[in-house]
Amino acid sequence: MPPANYTLNLETELQTTATGPNDQPSDPASPAALHMPFDNSYARELEGLYARSNPAGSPAPRLLRLNRELADELGLDADEMSSAAGLAVLAGNAVPAQAQPLAQAYAGHQFGSFSRQLGDGRALLLGELIDRCGRRRDIALKGSGRTPFSRRGDGKAALGPVLREYLMGEAMHVLGIPTTRALAAVATGATVQREQLLPGAILTRVAASHLRVGTFEYIAARDDQALLRRLADYAIARHDAALAGTPDPYLGLLQAVAERQASLVARWMGVGFIHGVMNTDNMTISGETIDYGPCAFMEHFDPEAVFSSIDTSGRYAYGNQPAIAQWNLARLAEALLTLIDADGEPAEQRAGAVVQAFAEHFDFHWTTVLRLKLGLDDASGGDRALADDYLTLLRRHRIDFTLAFARLADAAQGNNTPLRTLFGGAAAALELWLKRWRERTLAIGKSPDELAAALRSANPIYIPRNHHVESALAAAVERDDLAPFERLLRVLQHPFDEHAADSALAEPAPAEQTENYRTFCGT
Fold first, then answer.
1. How many CA atoms lie within 13 A of 370 on its CB side?
2. CB of 147 within 8 A of CB of 55?
3. What digits encode the pLDDT tens for the residues 243-296?
4. Residues 508 and 400: beta-carbon distance below 8 Å
5. Which of 47-51, 273-277, 306-310, 517-521 has the lowest mean pLDDT?
6. What is the distance between the alpha carbons of residues 67 and 72, in angstroms, rounded to a whole number?
7. 106 near 214, Cβ under 8 Å?
8. Is 60 helix (H, G, I), strand (E, B) or coil?
9. SS3 16
């Protein structure tokens, strides 16, 4: 699935919107009794890329879940965070003394059309913490009320999307995929109006940063060279410090982002993940997955799989994700062109070469992912063909992607029955491929048990199956019952450990349910 080639052409794609920010800030929240040692480099260094704002507050907040492991990682006291003082901060009713709440400004290409001004319409960056490993992490509230960028929105979030993002972020984290994470989910005690009245909630999101391709597009569209350089230098200092002082730091930044995104998308695809809305404002400079609105996990293997209700053209289908990542990277390249030192060669050519090289980088990472999923920890020239032929079998016979790889561990130990059962009447075609796979794995020299262990460590048995996610969210929203959510979260935090008691959570939905399944952005 090689990405298509894209050229750099800012002028022909730049479109502006008439919508401007609402300059009315929300009322300031009360001072917090809770101490959080924020150090706010974004607020200090990037004036012009944000608007000051305050959370609107919650009338009757209730802590639904605190991520105690993440709190400890951030150097926070989990007991204090779950106290009344902590709840006040997480609910937007109080702001820590060292916080500087702000809504970030950014633009973005949404389904290919450029919006000159988007920005945080329902999120607030409280500030940054230095975690126990010395890493700078953003702490942001999502769903805390209107900001100057809310346009016609209410700035609120409903309970279902908040719990979805909590669940998805934690599942991706345990699968080893770079992602934003949830520190807490809080019920606000208010309702939000969507197609119906829904219980409101606030998510506290933690990120390496919230810098996006759209952040660079926002400045480039305004031709503010001084601010563009400040932003690029800030991004380098925060995510690619080794580039500072090098001859071509801005070209290096583009290369670093390209490499991170190539790796990220390959990892997504290795677990059947479909982001659903890969707009440039949802592509991070850090290489973390962000914004789990209409995301879904593919069941039977299908490169054309689309679940997002707003992706009517299939632009962000499973198999299109590498090409879209490359397209987004071209938009970043356009934004950085004026900073890239040509050194005798046109900047367009140098940046364009990075964009074109993305296909090769993605192919390397995707091949690496596939090798691991087949239990191949060394390289052989026929490995990609072996993997591609297996994917062709899965597509032709509509076999569940996750289980088709997970059940290879049983086959490695001589038990072909689980895999044959998956293939049903196509078992004969499977046998021909299994013969080739066994010949290849024998060359590695591992015992059957060693091979099975490697396969089980690479292939989850549990993913956030769409029907189980929806069932858990419905219980929380409709019956205020978090038990299904907690059970699903517990299983997803150990995705490689199969237990008979949780076997139902490993099973795909009935085919007719999957065919009709649609996800929504949650705004």
1. 19
2. no
3. 999 999 999 999 999 999 999 999 999 999 999 999 999 999 999 999 998 999
4. yes
5. 517-521
6. 9
7. yes
8. coil
9. coil
The answer to whether 25 and 54 have CB atoms below 8 angstroms apart is: yes
Distances from the Cα of 204 to the Cα of 141, 147, 293, 516, angstroms: 5, 16, 15, 32
**277, 316 Cβ separation under 8 angstroms:** yes
62: Cβ–Cβ under 8 A, 6 or more apart, which residues? 87, 186, 187, 189
Radius of gyration of the chain (CA): 23
- How many Å apart are CA 101 and CA 126, to the nearest integer? 4
Are 362 and 3 in contact, with CB atoms under 8 Å apart?
yes
Both tokens of 22, joined, read 């609402």
Q: Are the C-beta atoms of 180 and 140 separated by less than 8 Å?
A: no
Tens digit of each residue's pLDDT (9 = 90 or more) over 282-294: 999 999 999 998 9
Structure tokens, 433 = 């491929």
Given the residues 120, 138, 281, 291, the one annotated as active site: 281
Tokens of 9: 């052409």
Residue 16 corresponds to which tokens in the numbers above? 């502006």
Our answer to whether residue 281 is catalytic in this structure is yes
Q: Write down the pTM of the prediction.
A: 0.92
